Amino acid sequence: MAESTTKAAVLFEVVEPHIALVTLNRPEARNAVNGAVAAGLEQAVERIEADPDLWVAVLTGAGPVFCAGADLKEVSAGNVAALMTQKGGFGGFVRAKRSKLWIAAAQGHALAGGLELLLSCDLAVAAEDANFGLPEVKRSLVAGAGGVFRLPRAIPRAIALEIIATGDQIPATRAAQFGLINAAVPGPEVMAAALTLARRAAVNAPIAVRESLGIARQAYDRAEADLWEICNAAGLRVRATEDFQEGPRAFVEKRPPHWIGR
Question: Which domain holds residue 158?
């Protein structure tokens, strides 16, 4: 969706086979989420989910900041509902149903709703000089787009509670130590590092990756007995695919597998 008649708030590009790049494109507003961003992100998710040839998505921002969170100008104008979509929640993303792998490439700070977007991704790479935080309490707000419960699941409880209660930021290097992100790299190397992760996933059988992610994402929410049943069902679905035959065949023939995604 266009933010104006000439500029899209979210850019979409297939950068390599099976890999899509989604870019928040409001650098003049620190990529803050407004209605156009929410609609654009939801459209990007739906496009990736619908395309069997897209297996991995990288989410990044234009300019020096990944995302500063909600556009407070929109909030103060009474347009807070526009920052959410019915299917995706805040930013059209944090509650969106996604089966594909998403990697955040935070070239700069990810704060408030920006951190919540990053927490909604499966993997993340960030610039060494990027900061992360949930400053909502400094404005008498709650990080209600997933931050207050996803952050304690992502890093040690005491550190998460410190970030939530103080509203203070931590640098990417410390975030990497706690496992909030997969790597902190020099700023110019963020996209290359994210694409390297994307390629490492994209060489694998796409249905097996999606089924495995679907199980792993429920690890905190389901009882172990339920997870055994979910695993068994996923295994049956994978065994019914053509790629299930291709994996052992490629191994025996000593060649790279050719996955078709079905």
Answer: 10-202
Rounded to whole angstroms, the Cα distance separating 219 from 224 reads: 8
How many structural domains comprise the chain? 2
Percent of the chain whose predicted confidence (pLDDT) is above 90: 92
* Given the residues 13, 136, 211, 253, the one annotated as active site: 136
Tell me what pLDDT residue 91 has. 98
Give the residue carrying structure tokens 């390599």: 16
Residue 121 sits in the same domain as residue 49: yes
Q: Is 242 a catalytic residue?
A: no
* Residue 69: C-alpha distances to residues 108, 114, 251 (Å): 13, 4, 46
Q: Is 162 a catalytic residue?
A: no
Q: Is 262 inside a domain boundary?
A: no
Of 42, 116, 189, 253, which one is the catalytic site residue? 116
Please write the tens of the pLDDT for every residue from 19-55. Answer: 999 999 999 999 999 999 999 999 999 999 999 999 9
